[in-house]
Amino acid sequence: MQLVDIGANLTHSSFQHDLTAVLDRAAAQGVDQLVVTGASRDGSPQALALAQAHPGRLFATAGVHPHHADEYDADCDALLRELVAAPQVRAVGEAGLDYHRDLSPRPTQQFAFERQLQIALDCGKPLFLHQRDAHDDFMAILRPVRDRLAAVVVHCFTGTREELFDYLDLDCHVGITGWICDERRGTHLREIVGNVPLNRLMIETDSPYLLPRNLKPMPSHRRNEPMFLAHICAEVARDRGESLETTAAGTTATARAFFGL
Predict the structure, then answer these.
(1) Residue 155 is part of a domain; what is its CATH number?
(2) 56, containing H or E segment
(3) Which residue, 56, 201, 234, 247, is the most exposed by fewest CB within 10 angstroms?
(4) pLDDT at 219 exceeding the cut of 90
(5) Which of 38, 80, 32 is nearest to 58 (CA)?
(6) Which residues lie closer than 8 Å to 239 by C-beta, 6 or more apart?
(7) Which of 169, 128, 165, 163 has the alpha carbon at shortest distance from 258?
(8) Residue 214 structural domain
(9) How many structural domains comprise the chain?
(10) Residue 258 pLDDT level (bands cut at 50, 70, 90)
(11) Per-residue pLDDT tens over the stretch 101-135
């Protein structure tokens, strides 16, 4: 079984001391390629550096998450344009809107989102997007330019059935994380994940965040890592009524086509 983790925050400080072991454990569970998320002005160059250090195994995105939107200025825009020109950077983002925590003012988030959409329009690379509690504004910004963009994935999807179909109607891909394993918040995802065509479905850990809550045994350190993608894949397969082999092969083929792996 071969898997692709399309969202791993490997620049996080918790991975600094044992990244080689983390990648080895992932490989032992069939995770042979990973996309390292670039989510800030400082983190995006670090994601690219990791991809350059692990050719063919790690790839990167370059963007500014809405939590960091207040970093976005002309210099940041120029930096992202330089980063996305690198062959190891396979998508623009993580970009989007997050009104759940509002760590940056909403107008600032919207500005950063719009600027990164323009970068994607200019470079022709896919988009790696984030949305939480901001669906209407997110759609209002994305919809007018969607037909001029390359592929788009709404990563770490946690929304409603209606939101899911809005994204599918816009020909977006959908990324599913261990959120689906959370009996407190993810039950609705189990009921709707089967509506995503296999050629638009991808899986991810979003590690070190979102450790699947139904892992047994639960790791004592409570850090999520890419090796647990196999567990997420099995849960998604069960909820879709598919064999593990079907879900694994389908999501891997979709990820490789989306990111050009």
Answers:
(1) 3.20.20.140
(2) none
(3) 56
(4) no
(5) 32
(6) 180, 189, 190, 191, 193, 194
(7) 128
(8) 3-259
(9) 1
(10) very high
(11) 899 999 999 999 999 999 999 999 999 999 999 99
